[in-house]
Amino acid sequence: MFVVKVLWCLLLIYHLSEGKKIKGIRAGGVETEQRGVLREKEPHVSSSIFRLFLGGEDTCTLDPLQLHTLTSCGFNSSNPLIIITHGWSVDGMMESWVMRLATAVRTNLIDANVVLTDWLSLAQQHYPVAVQRTRTVGKDIAHLLQTLQEHYKYPLRNAHLIGYSLGAHISGFAGSFLTGQEKIGRITGLDPAGPLFEGMSTTDRLSPDDAEFVDAIHTFTHERMGLSVGIKQAVAHYDFYPNGGDFQPGCDLQNIYEHISQYGILGFGQTVKCAHERSVHLFIDSLLNKDKQSMAYRCSDNSAFDKGVCLDCRKNRCNTLGYDIKKVRTGTSKRLYLKTRSRMPYKLYHYQFRIQFVNQTEKVEPSLTISLTGTKEESGAVDITFNEKISGNKTFTFLITLDRDLGELMLLNMRWEASPLWENVWDKVQTIIPWRTWERKRLLNVGKVSVKAGETQKRTSFCSMTNEGQMEASEDIVFVRCKEERPKRPRRKDNL
Asked: How many domains are contained in the chain?
């Protein structure tokens, strides 16, 4: 993983250093052109190429100055409009994810107009130069939308701009140029680029002001040598940070062989950009796997989320990642966190495991293994590790993620895995000192145990079948639903 991050950073540093030779780039890496309504006396000549996606590998080129091309290509002003914009290009080639995303959108929205923004001629430059051109491409998109609005009465609220990396900020600039009464309906930023945008004002990057609703997915924000490929700061109404946002499972260098088997000689490049591009595939996943939508939860940071204290959906504290997000405008950006699998479908089910210890007189640092049984599935063994010794009365909370839906929780099995070192010491003590002098055994005094399912928001309390809640080392104890939580049988009506 370290090697992958270093390779990314070295590549960016090289292009950033080359960019210093170029005059006219401001500190923020973008042009000084002010936002405003597009009012130009001369016809706008686009630097970008717009292609209407027809399916498969087929596209049809649209020219906003030649209105007949919209008709001949089959643009339908009654249908939603999705504009997909790629990011910085090293080799000048359109990346394969663009067609995969376009296909997924068309599969999900059969009647949608899917338009691809091709700005490769500007994107294949040293990174700072490409950054400088983002406003130009944003203006191109704004002119296309303005043409549709003026000549086809197309409502901007029906437009959804999806931008990856630099394309995310381009989409934001497109929205900022359209300063009329109506805004673009939605902008989705897929791991918006970090270098030369991190820490910038809202006018110099993607921001919630650029559309009626803005969402962003951050997947590669880990900082090395002062740089992060994806932007860390919140830039939307809802900002999603899968797996903390800094790196993604399945993107380590050890996965290069898997990538080579899947992508051939391009596998190495796929490993390098894996975490950055994961944002795209998470969005595609939300379109293809409608029955496995990934839920994310608002939290102060990833550390708090890992403790399992943030699985709350009240007051819009949770939302669906991807296309089917609940579009709620908020005054401030909301940061949401979730865990995912390393491959599609990415969904994991989140559970909050809470355990209370009471009257614990002996300090113990236990390692527990639990398994949950529901009406649909069993969880299998899940290890719970404590980072501190337990004593007195204390409650601990953990986050558990599973790749299956257990259904309604019915049974909890818990085992205290004793430390091999402690067991060895204990055996020697029993050998030296007669057992009868050691009548008091090491015990864990377990009080209340509860499990909350994030996806259903249902909390289930468990009670020990022995009603004592005392555990010995290497002992299995079965917990069942507490009596007050067991499903009630319907009363039988007596015949009158």
From this structure: 2
255: Cα separation from own chain's centroid: 20
Are 289 and 309 in the same domain? Answer: yes
Does residue 93 form part of some domain?
Answer: yes
Number of H helices, E strands in the chain: 12, 20
State the residue range of the domain holding 328. 2-338
CB 118 within 8 Å of CB 50:
yes
Angle of CA points 301, 327, 117, to nearest 5°: 95
CA distance 194 to 220: 9
More confident residue, 29 or 103: 103
Co-location of 25 and 85 in the same domain: yes
Reply yes or no on whether 140 is catalytic: no
Residues 130-188 pLDDT 10s: 999 999 999 999 999 999 999 999 999 999 999 999 999 999 999 999 988 899 999 99
Residue 351 pairs in a beta bridge with 400, 453
- Identify the CA nearest to 412 among candidates 354, 367, 360: 354
Q: Are 83 and 264 in contact (CB under 8 A)?
A: no
Of 165, 176, 228, 286, which residue is the catalytic one?
165
Residues in the chain, total: 496
> Strand pairing partners for 483?
none
Residue 329 sits in the same domain as residue 384: no
Nearest to 152 by CA among 75, 212, 82, 210: 75
The reply to whether 489 sits in an annotated binding site is: no
Task: Based on the residue annotation, tell me whether 276 is a catalytic residue of this protein.
Answer: yes
- Per annotation, catalytic residue among 48, 89, 126, 191: 191
CA dihedral 40, 41, 45, 50 (to 10 degrees): 60
Q: How far apart are CA 237 and CA 207, in angstroms?
A: 8
pLDDT band at 366; cut points 50, 70, 90:
confident
Let me know if residue 10 belongs to a domain: yes
Beta strand residue intervals within 203-244, DSSP E? 213-217, 238-242
> Hey, which residues does 353 pair with through a beta bridge?
398, 451
Task: Check: CB of residue 187 under 8 Å from CB of residue 211.
Answer: yes
Phi, then psi, of 293 in degrees rounded to 5: -75, 135
The band of 418, judged by pLDDT with boundaries at 50, 70 and 90, is: low
Q: Are 307 and 300 in contact (CB under 8 A)?
A: no
* Choice among 222, 237, 276, 350 that is catalytic: 276
Whether 415 has a binding-site annotation, put simply, is no
CATH of the domain at 194: 3.40.50.1820
Taking the C-alpha atoms of residue 224 and residue 201, their distance in angstroms, rounded to an integer, is 23
Phi, psi of 476 (to 5 degrees): -95, 135
Asked about 300 being catalytic, the answer comes back as: no
Contacts of 39 (CB under 8 A, 6+ apart): none
Q: Are 115 and 53 in contact (CB under 8 A)?
A: yes
Residue 256 has pLDDT above 60, yes or no: no
